TrEMBL record:
CDD domains: ATP-synt_Fo_c. This is ATP synthase subunit c. Its main location: membrane. Residues 20-83 form the V-ATPase proteolipid subunit C-like domain. It is a multi-pass membrane protein. Key component of the F(0) channel; it plays a direct role in translocation across the membrane. A homomeric c-ring of between 10-14 subunits forms the central stalk rotor element with the F(1) delta and epsilon subunits. F(1)F(0) ATP synthase produces ATP from ADP in the presence of a proton or sodium gradient. F-type ATPases consist of two structural domains, F(1) containing the extramembraneous catalytic core and F(0) containing the membrane proton channel, linked together by a central stalk and a peripheral stalk. During catalysis, ATP synthesis in the catalytic domain of F(1) is coupled via a rotary mechanism of the central stalk subunits to proton translocation. Keywords: ATP synthesis, Cell membrane, CF(0), Hydrogen ion transport, Ion transport, Lipid-binding, Membrane, Transmembrane, Transmembrane helix, Transport. The chain crosses the membrane at residues 20-40, 61-85. InterPro entries: ATP_synth_csu_bac/chlpt, ATP_synth_F0_csu, ATP_synth_F0_csu_DDCD_BS, ATP_synth_F0_csu_sf, ATPase_proteolipid_c-like_dom, F/V-ATP_Csub_sf. GO terms for molecular function: lipid binding; proton-transporting ATP synthase activity, rotational mechanism. The keyword Transmembrane helix applies. Signal peptide: none annotated. The lineage of its organism: Bacteria, Pseudomonadati, Bacteroidota, Cytophagia, Cytophagales. It comes from the Bacteria.
Amino acid sequence: MSLLNIILQAAADGKGLAVMGAGIGAGLAAIGAGLGIGRIGGSAMEGVARQPEAAGKIQSMMIIIAALIEAVALFAAVICLLISFKMA
Protein backbone atom coordinates (compact mmCIF):
# COMPACT_ATOMS: atom_id res chain seq x y z
CA MET A 1 0.00 0.00 0.00
CA SER A 2 1.47 3.32 -0.99
CA LEU A 3 1.56 6.49 1.03
CA LEU A 4 -0.88 8.14 -1.36
CA ASN A 5 -3.46 5.41 -0.72
CA ILE A 6 -3.09 5.86 3.04
CA ILE A 7 -3.57 9.62 2.75
CA LEU A 8 -6.58 9.19 0.49
CA GLN A 9 -8.19 6.76 2.93
CA ALA A 10 -7.53 9.14 5.81
CA ALA A 11 -9.06 12.01 3.85
CA ALA A 12 -12.24 10.06 3.10
CA ASP A 13 -13.99 11.18 6.28
CA GLY A 14 -11.95 14.33 6.91
CA LYS A 15 -11.02 13.43 10.48
CA GLY A 16 -8.11 11.19 9.56
CA LEU A 17 -5.98 14.02 8.22
CA ALA A 18 -6.46 16.02 11.42
CA VAL A 19 -5.35 13.07 13.53
CA MET A 20 -2.38 12.42 11.23
CA GLY A 21 -1.44 16.11 11.39
CA ALA A 22 -1.67 16.05 15.18
CA GLY A 23 0.66 13.05 15.30
CA ILE A 24 3.15 14.73 12.99
CA GLY A 25 2.94 17.92 15.06
CA ALA A 26 3.66 16.05 18.30
CA GLY A 27 6.66 14.38 16.67
CA LEU A 28 8.01 17.67 15.37
CA ALA A 29 7.60 19.25 18.82
CA ALA A 30 9.62 16.43 20.39
CA ILE A 31 12.33 16.67 17.74
CA GLY A 32 12.51 20.45 18.11
CA ALA A 33 12.85 20.20 21.88
CA GLY A 34 15.60 17.62 21.56
CA LEU A 35 17.54 19.75 19.12
CA GLY A 36 17.09 22.86 21.25
CA ILE A 37 18.27 21.23 24.43
CA GLY A 38 21.19 19.65 22.58
CA ARG A 39 22.29 23.05 21.33
CA ILE A 40 21.97 24.50 24.82
CA GLY A 41 24.11 21.71 26.26
CA GLY A 42 26.77 22.11 23.60
CA SER A 43 26.91 25.87 23.99
CA ALA A 44 27.08 25.55 27.76
CA MET A 45 30.01 23.15 27.49
CA GLU A 46 31.81 25.59 25.21
CA GLY A 47 31.12 28.43 27.61
CA VAL A 48 32.43 26.48 30.59
CA ALA A 49 35.52 25.46 28.62
CA ARG A 50 36.23 29.11 27.80
CA GLN A 51 35.44 30.50 31.27
CA PRO A 52 35.54 27.82 33.97
CA GLU A 53 34.93 30.39 36.71
CA ALA A 54 31.45 31.11 35.26
CA ALA A 55 30.35 27.46 35.32
CA GLY A 56 27.76 28.00 38.06
CA LYS A 57 26.02 30.87 36.26
CA ILE A 58 26.11 29.05 32.93
CA GLN A 59 24.68 25.88 34.45
CA SER A 60 21.81 27.67 36.17
CA MET A 61 20.90 29.58 33.00
CA MET A 62 21.12 26.37 30.99
CA ILE A 63 18.70 24.58 33.32
CA ILE A 64 16.19 27.45 33.22
CA ILE A 65 16.25 27.66 29.43
CA ALA A 66 15.98 23.87 29.07
CA ALA A 67 12.93 23.90 31.36
CA LEU A 68 11.30 26.60 29.22
CA ILE A 69 11.96 24.60 26.06
CA GLU A 70 10.49 21.48 27.66
CA ALA A 71 7.41 23.43 28.73
CA VAL A 72 6.77 24.64 25.19
CA ALA A 73 7.28 21.13 23.79
CA LEU A 74 4.93 19.65 26.39
CA PHE A 75 2.32 22.30 25.59
CA ALA A 76 2.59 21.47 21.87
CA ALA A 77 2.28 17.74 22.53
CA VAL A 78 -0.79 18.25 24.73
CA ILE A 79 -2.46 20.40 22.08
CA CYS A 80 -1.74 17.75 19.45
CA LEU A 81 -3.17 15.03 21.68
CA LEU A 82 -6.28 17.09 22.36
CA ILE A 83 -6.79 17.56 18.63
CA SER A 84 -6.35 13.87 17.94
CA PHE A 85 -8.75 12.78 20.73
CA LYS A 86 -11.36 15.35 19.73
CA MET A 87 -11.29 14.28 16.09
CA ALA A 88 -11.19 10.51 16.69
